[in-house]
Every structure is written in C-alpha cells, then in structure tokens.
Amino acid sequence: MALRPVQVNIKALDDSAVGRFWAEALGWSVSSEGPGVTNVEPGGGFVWPDPVAVCIDVVTVPEPKTTTKNRVHLDLATTSAAHQAELVARLQALGATPADVGQGDVPWTVLADPEGNEFCVLEPREIYRDTGPIAAVVVDCVDPRAMARFWGEAVDWTLHEVTDDHAVLRSAKDVGPYLEFLRMPGVKTVPDRVHLDLLPYPGDDKAAEVARLRGLGATDLDLGQGDVPWTCLADPEGHEFCVLGRS
C-alpha cells in the first residue's frame, strides 16, 4: 500500500486567471473538471494521473491570501543564467511580482504569482537538470527529520537525503520534481494556501490508506468541505493535504 503525489492544489480568488498564469509559466495546458477548478498539466497527449508528473489544480475560494508567507511553494528550474533571467522577465510580464521573504542576497529569485503565492526561480543546479519546469515542491517545517519519517512512509517516493535542516524525496523512478522539507523558524499560523494532493494506486483501498496515514500521525481536518470524495488530513506539523478518491 502506498500513495503518490499527483498534484499541487493552489487556492485562488480567480482560478482561471491563476491557472492561466501557471500554464504560461510552465509551458503547460489548461483544462477544467468543473466550475471553480482549473487544471494545469503538461500538454502533448498527457494523461492524468502520470506515474511521476506533479500537476497543478487551482481551486476557487472566497478568501484572499493573507500577508503570511505560504509554507508550501514551488521552485522552478533553469538551465543557464540567461534562461533564469529570461524566465524571470517573462514571468513578470505575465503578472508575477518580486517578493521579499527575508531571503537576502541569494542566487535565486523570489516572485509571487498574481494572487501573491510565493515561488522561486532557481539559478541553474545540476540536481534539477531533468526535473522538468518544476524543480521541487518545497515545504517549510520545524523538523525535517520528523517530516522525512512521516512523508517517507506516507508516499512511495524515495528518501534521498535527510539532515537537521533538509529532507529530500523523489519518485522511485528518479524522475520528475523533488519534494523537499526545509527547516524554517516559526510554526504554521494560518491554513496553507498551497497543498499536496495524494492518490491511491488502482486497486488500493482509499479508506485503508487514510487509516494508515492516521496511524503514522496524520490528523483529520475539517475545512468545511462537506461530503466530498476526497479526505482532508494534516501531517504532524499541521500541513494540510488531501487523499483523492478518483483515478
């Protein structure tokens, strides 16, 4: 039994506008499974769920983002200094704005999408040469080792590195983006604007998977979701995530 990360869920006042931004940013396509949801995924005959691709779902909510920095964000990969500069300029032309999260003088560029969700455009790094446009999904946390223990059991990705400051997982196929946990000061104070959605494999029992996650330390989460086919949970540090009920 295992689960796979299949998409990053981003809440937005205008799912269509934010979805278009991310599609243009990544060079992907947009579709919609229903009102208030914009799906952003690779083009070229892509079929969801892909064994390794992590897509983006933008979902409409009535509340705007607070000024609090998201504790989950995307890092975008680049192949050269010129590519990084070109991508930053293109993203700003699409509506991204510079963001100051206390990063200081660093080689990467911190931006925010049109609704203020922070993300990074990384300088070229060899480790991300084959990830595709999304280098990593990055989670701020208090204890990367504890997060590695939980998420290493929760999903079927391989743990590549774990230290007091950093934990890194990636698909067992060793392709696609990384899932990274970074030690950051402070604790979660507001609901995450960005979270991961997990999916069981065909034939696996969703209820059994949810029970397994609870046994690992996940807790049930009531976001007012009502009767829906997915289950909302939080990891041991309170990061929200969903276990989907469709495939």
UniProtKB/TrEMBL annotation:
Pfam families: Glyoxalase_6. Signal peptide: none annotated. It comes from the Bacteria. Gene3D superfamilies: 2,3-Dihydroxybiphenyl 1,2-Dioxygenase, domain 1. Residues 8-122, 136-244 form the Glyoxalase-like domain. PANTHER family: CONSERVED PROTEIN, HYPOTHETICAL FUSION PROTEIN. This is VOC family protein.
